[in-house]
Design a protein that fits this description.
Number of helices: 10
Order of helices and strands: HEHEEEHHHHHHHH
Mean pLDDT: 85
Distance between the termini: 36 Å
Strand order of the largest sheet: 1-4
Structural class: mainly alpha
Number of domains: 1
Low-confidence stretches: none
């Protein structure tokens, strides 16, 4: 007969591995695709918002493509926090930041490789017949400015540490009840900081934006992230359901209580 403690340890390890893999993959993809800016209004077929903030700034809901999946990163972070505590979140957050930095180094190195002539020739025109330089296009898509990379990584780490702390603080008040409150509340607080830190570093310190423009764009970004975080709240309950089935409800509750206690020791 298999040892129940050994079986639970294996399940707990496999759960953390799976959640960490989802977290890391989504964060890495979000960083790489973040160079594209898309119009949320055009996507859903409505007119541009044309929001007037701070005088001359007229803003629409133009967002980075990375914003599409960033909310899933924070949902996964909250699930990890629930069962593995702040230490579990910190571990995967710093590991992810290291892999993101490594990815940008490799991407930069690849963009400076000399292109093969036949590659340039067979990709000399786009589908409409207009001439293009595929090597320049490759560089423009994959290269991101140093300021954006530093700002993004800094905001990511600050946001994750803050999210983990707020989550466990709210859990100390609510106990095992009100999952939605601690998950959504921690995300709303951390994303408020994240939204302004990344813009401030990337475009104010390293760029040429004014402080007013950073604040204006940050507000638009935060409105999107906050709305998405609220809409994704049901996913937390779905995840808890399947984790309870995977670990067993009693083991799952014990693991969550253990992570909460260790986070405040």
């Amino acid at each position: 007969m298999p040892n129940s403690n050994y079986s639970f340890t294996n399940k707990r390890t496999s759960l953390y591995t799976l959640l960490s893999a989802v977290f890391l993959t989504n964060a890495l993809i979000a960083e790489i695709i973040g160079v594209k800016i898309f119009s949320a209004e055009t996507l859903i077929g409505v007119k541009p918002a044309q929001i007037h903030l701070f005088g001359d700034f007229v803003l629409d809901f133009n967002l980075t493509a990375g914003a599409v999946i960033w909310p899933f990163v924070f949902v996964t972070s909250d699930i990890i926090n629930e069962y593995f505590g702040k230490a579990g979140v910190r571990r995967i957050s710093f590991l992810t930041a290291g892999f993101v930095a490594y990815s940008f180094v490799i991407i930069y190195a690849v963009t400076v490789l000399p292109p093969a002539q036949f590659w340039l020739d067979v990709n000399a025109t786009d589908p409409s017949g207009q001439p293009i330089n595929i090597d320049n296009a490759f560089k423009m898509i994959f290269r991101q400015g140093l300021g954006i990379i530093i700002g993004s990584l800094t905001a990511f780490l600050i946001g994750q540490v803050l999210d983990a702390w707020v989550f466990q603080y709210l859990r100390s008040i609510t106990g095992s009840r009100k999952i939605w409150l601690r998950a959504t509340g921690s995300t709303l607080v951390s994303q408020l900081v994240d939204s302004f830190v990344v813009l401030g570093i990337a475009f104010y310190i390293f760029g040429n934006w004014s402080l007013a423009q950073v604040v204006a764009v940050g507000i638009i970004n935060y409105l999107y992230k906050a709305t998405t975080a609220i809409l994704l709240t049901p996913l937390l309950y779905v995840a808890h359901y399947f984790i309870d089935r995977h670990l067993g409800k009693e083991h799952a509750e014990d693991l969550a209580n253990e992570s909460a206690m260790s986070s405040f020791m």
